[in-house]
């Protein structure tokens, strides 16, 4: 059985983002065109499909780390803020972006909310494992072969 752990994250996230574009529940809100993804960023994302890429990344992160809450996800998507001549400091990512993405993933049936936080649902696990299985052959062709002497 192929799982999310068996394929590289960049391949899985890219393909998952393409599949999430086909789901009507997952749509970027109107404010997504000009919002920053955290106070540590200076500009909004340049990629037009950044919402779907972030949703795919969040879905993978919930699969791996779940159950998780918004604050823990904000820490994962945070970064260093440039404070001019002062030293850089860590700042958490945007909670509104993550909250809206998780709400959309819940509406699609891929994430379930319980007392501990949000965790992957059986439909979400099957969705990601199916994509991982389709990407396994591509990933196997890129992996270096080990030879023993």
UniProtKB/TrEMBL annotation:
Signal peptide: none annotated. One of its GO terms (molecular function) is structural constituent of ribosome. One of its GO terms (biological process) is ribosomal small subunit assembly. Keywords: Ribonucleoprotein, Ribosomal protein. It holds the Pfam family Ribosomal_S19e. GO terms for cellular component: cytosolic small ribosomal subunit. Belongs to the eukaryotic ribosomal protein eS19 family. This is Small ribosomal subunit protein eS19. It comes from hydrocarbon metagenome.
């Amino acid at each position: 059985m192929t799982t999310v752990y068996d394929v590289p994250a960049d391949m899985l996230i890219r393909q998952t983002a393409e599949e999430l574009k086909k789901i009507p529940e997952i749509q970027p809100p109107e404010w997504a065109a000009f919002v920053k993804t955290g106070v540590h960023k200076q500009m909004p994302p340049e990629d037009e499909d950044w919402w779907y890429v972030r949703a795919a990344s969040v879905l993978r992160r919930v699969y791996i780390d779940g159950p998780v809450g918004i604050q823990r996800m904000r820490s994962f998507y945070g970064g260093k803020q440039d404070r001019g001549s002062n030293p850089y400091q860590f700042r958490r990512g945007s909670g509104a972006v993550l909250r809206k993405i998780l709400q959309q993933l819940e509406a699609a049936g891929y994430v379930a909310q319980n007392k501990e936080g949000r965790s992957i649902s059986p439909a979400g696990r099957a969705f990601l494992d199916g994509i991982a299985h389709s990407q396994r052959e591509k990933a196997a062709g890129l992996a270096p072969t080990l030879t023993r002497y």
